[in-house]
Batch of 2 targets.
Target 1
Amino acid sequence: MGQDVDHRSEYDLSGSPRRGLVMATLSFFAGLTTIAFYGVAGPTFQEALGISGALLGLLLSSPHISKVLLRVPFGAWVDDIGARKPILILMGTTLVGFVGLVGTLFLFYPDNFGSHLYVPLLVFGILAGAGSATFSVGIAQTSYWFPEDKQGFAMGVFGGAGNIGPGIVNSVIPFLIGVAGLALAYSSWLVFMLAATALYFAYGANPYYFQLLDKGLDSDRAQSVAEDLGQEVFPGGGTWDSLKESSTNYWTWVLVFLYTVSYGGGFTALTTWYPTYWNLFHGMSLAMAGLFAGVFVVYGSLVRIPGGSLSDRFGGENVAAVSFAVMVVGAAIATVSQAVIPAFVGMMILGTGMGVANAAVFELVPKYVPDAVGGASGWIGGIGGAGTLLVLPILGVFVDVYGEIGYARGFVVIAGLSAICVAVSVLLKFYGPEPAEEIDESAMH
């Protein structure tokens, strides 16, 4: 302990694993709210703009475009310079998109609001969506702050608490729109984003290794000092080295697939889809539909926390296999449900499986790609997040083909993909790599 104190004072280091986790979670919590940037008020924007369902779908997807494009390079960039600068750039870009939308609403809504504003609104959505890329950055930052035996817990807290944001937005913003109007509702959201960015600027700190590099130490000395302070996970190289190394590791792509189904094509797709599903299929008001969707998001997010601890205890492969099986059950119920109560039950079962599966997948990252955690997190978060852009249109096609009942029948897609993931997770149990610490212990005996 004395050596830790000496190192911290000698090199004027700041932060701690707990503070690093809190700040990373705050940035992700705020940044991820942007995936619901337009979806939370989708019917309102469609009516005000006078656009088709296809154009509305594109508008709803606009924040996901920047999420997909930015998660890979920004996640890998952490391996080069740490997370502080990437997070501040992403949050700053998000603020530009918010300011653009809020300004447009005050200037044009409702009297001069129309299809001529569609392209600018698309651009604002893409800019605002940059904040959701804090996911891959925060995953890498959290990995470097915590020892290997605490990865599941840390990832569960980060992903669980961080993912609550869209659920709160889905619940609160429709209410604010009804009380104060569209412009003021989005203005309150902008104030929150400004506050979150300011807090991260004031208290966000890189893990010790990156702070030491900034102070001029070479990588070997920086790693030695950081190890004395308790850091166990270190980057194998810079940004492009991390991307290259993780991309050539086939385990990265297995985890990408699992995450695509559980998160990008599962959790975030349904986060955007459920407000419309409850509103148009079950006839709920926009506020009530948002509340139901918010319950799904908050619950599915919080369950990641025990999901991470379960992964630490029982192994990510085992927990992933069980959680994907739970997703099959939930999706099957949703597929055949036309009444509110069974549909709600199916939604909650889906939230359970998706939340735990998300935690399980990222518990496996340091084990399967130990030398390029940032790069792997970028690929997984970026490409895995792209599942939203694929699944949402497919769900829409089911409605076009089958009519109103298509809102339910579309869940068969999630059921089928989840069943494949069960098989993949079981195979990982038998053919995945052994943890390095277990190999070392066996060698000692």
Target 2
Amino acid sequence: MLTPRAFRPFKLLALFLTPLFALLLAAPAWSFQTRIVSIPSAAMHRAFDATVVLPDDYARGSGAARYPVIYALHGSGGNYADWTSNTQIGKLADRYHVILVMPDGGHESWYIDSPFDTASRYETYVGTEVVSYIDAHFRTLATRQTRAITGLSMGGFGALRIALDHPEAFGAAGSISGAVDPRNCEDEPGIDRIFGNPASHADFWTRNAIVEGADSFERAKIALTIDCGVSDSFVQSNRTLHEKLIALGVPHDYAERPGGHTWSYWSNAIRYQVLFFATSFQRNGWHPATHQA
């Protein structure tokens, strides 16, 4: 038979576990769903995989609720799985009650419809075909006011390029460590296949450089957020874009934080950008508590 003294270790253990269980119960339960879907492209005559993250309440709800959508583009050499493999982006779907879509943009497409490689039509694919597919297959709020696009590095360039060329589709856009001036990336393997020879087609390179088209944001009326690490090789071109936007009076958020061209920086930056987009959606009348169809 156990004596009262023998019970003391169990009492101490109970005293230790009680607050631990309380912490576990208080911790958020991340129950987002991640799906891989195949999205066809009529422009490129093939299908590409994409990652779609649905918030927990998408499945738990009545089936009538509809959600804003944030598109996140990968960088050069990446693919549709980069964001979910290297960050905890899925938690942001639960936190802000949004659908996240990460399409495949090819290894070196720059998300444009290249006149030099007519088989590379990634602006049409991401800006039109992917958006149409997602709206047809998921319960989205299919308006520009509840749709945003961002990306990292090459994807940052692509997000801004697509948003400028498709203002009817995207009411908000962002860039993280964006290659906003591809003229600084002439040594990138394969880039001349998309932009053409930089010597003989310099006008095309210049025409597509985001830093040279800052005035386009004035006309597009896009909620805009841009950030770059202070140790990033692209920081100067991002500063140039920021300064031009200020001179033009274009409203935008701009941030520089410690960090370089790394997943450590990008996994932190995406949290700020999704918050920015969720705030933009709410300014346009959306609220998670009242987003029934």
